[in-house]
Design goal:
Low-confidence stretches: none
Distance between the termini: 43 Å
Number of domains: 2
GO molecular function: cadmium ion transmembrane transporter activity; ferrous iron transmembrane transporter activity; zinc efflux antiporter activity
Number of helices: 8
Family: Belongs to the cation diffusion facilitator (CDF) transporter (TC 2.A.4) family.
Structural class: alpha+beta
Shape: elongated
Mean pLDDT: 81
Subcellular location: Cell membrane
CATH superfamily of the largest domain: Cation efflux protein transmembrane domain
Organism: Paracoccus siganidrum
Protein name: Protein p34
Radius of gyration: 25 Å
Length: 295
């Protein structure tokens, strides 16, 4: 079982534990704000399951129907997660409105807040795991899940502070107001997750730092060629797709041109192990005198 898959399964377990703790906190206090926090955790569980399914699909090898692989499945999971976050935010805001119209007193606040705080601490730890490992494993699904959990942590901090203030002042109306603010925050996070994932589905190029590294490797390792132009990149999950035209002297043999391409591919894959590279070799009269010049 891959590391990505093990982490995805761990997210489901952590999500269920956090959901149970936050639901208990809500049951003890009757707080609308704590209810909104618990409701977001139901989304955490659902999206963790979606991420697990997407990661399993993305890991399938290329086949006749999908010659480039199934890597984009993780982006679909991240989009679904963003949409579900937005739906949860709207449900929270609806409950906040009902609570604002009929404020209720908060019962057993300290016990509920301590339990909610424990759930928030667990979420904070797991968000760190997801974001750091998601970056290392180049998994959009894990990174999206981690950023969602991180927004949940900040929501929990705000909820705990707000409920304490409502109890201290006796202003029960603060509880539904706080729930509404949590809903707005979650709505914004959902939009960001969705927008980022859609950019991946639209074949967005790699970030500028990675693109410059690719350019540098081509320039350094293409000795014997003249230039490389029409460099294009895109990413899908853990895979980076790179293609470009390599201009060589017209007298270069096929074997020599192939050796140059092999050297470039080996160096690129040493930096980007999952890279899939396509190089189109052209004679010197096709040079554009732009793009990547060979050192």
């Amino acid at each position: 079982m891959s590391m990505t898959l093990r982490i995805a399964i761990g997210s489901i377990v952590v999500g269920l534990v956090v959901l149970a703790l936050k639901t208990l906190a809500w049951w003890l206090t009757g707080s609308v704000a704590l209810m909104s926090d618990a409701l977001e955790s139901t989304v955490n569980v659902a999206t963790a399951i979606a991420a697990l399914i997407a990661i399993r699909v993305a890991a399938k090898p290329a086949d006749r129907g999908h010659p480039y692989g199934h890597h984009k499945a993780e982006f679909f999971s991240a989009v679904l997660e963003g949409v579900m976050i937005i739906i949860a935010a709207l449900l929270i805001m609806r409950e906040a409105w009902h609570g604002l119209m009929a404020p209720r007193p908060i019962e057993a606040p300290m016990a509920g807040l301590m339990i909610n705080g424990a759930a928030g601490a667990l979420n904070a730890f797991w968000a760190w795991v997801l974001i750091t490992r998601g970056r290392a494993l180049k998994s959009p699904a894990l990174k999206a899940d981690g950023h969602h959990l991180l927004s949940d942590v900040w929501s929990s901090v705000g909820v705990i502070g707000g409920v304490l203030l409502a109890v201290a002042t006796g202003w029960t109306v603060l509880d539904p107001i706080l729930a509404g603010l949590v809903g707005l925050h979650i709505l914004w996070q959902g939009w960001k997750v969705t927008a980022h994932s859609l950019s991946g589905l639209m074949d967005e190029a790699v970030e500028e730092k990675t693109l410059q590294q690719i350019r540098d490797i081509i320039s350094d390792r293409a000795t014997g060629a003249i230039e490389a132009h029409d460099l294009r990149t895109r990413h899908a999950g853990q895979v980076t797709f790179i293609d470009f035209h390599l201009v060589v002297d017209g007298q270069t043999t096929v074997d020599d041109a192939h050796a140059i391409c092999d050297r470039i591919e080996q160096s690129l894959q040493a930096k980007l192990p999952e890279a899939q590279i396509t190089i189109h070799v052209e004679p010197e009269h096709k040079a554009k005198h732009s793009g990547v010049l060979v050192i």
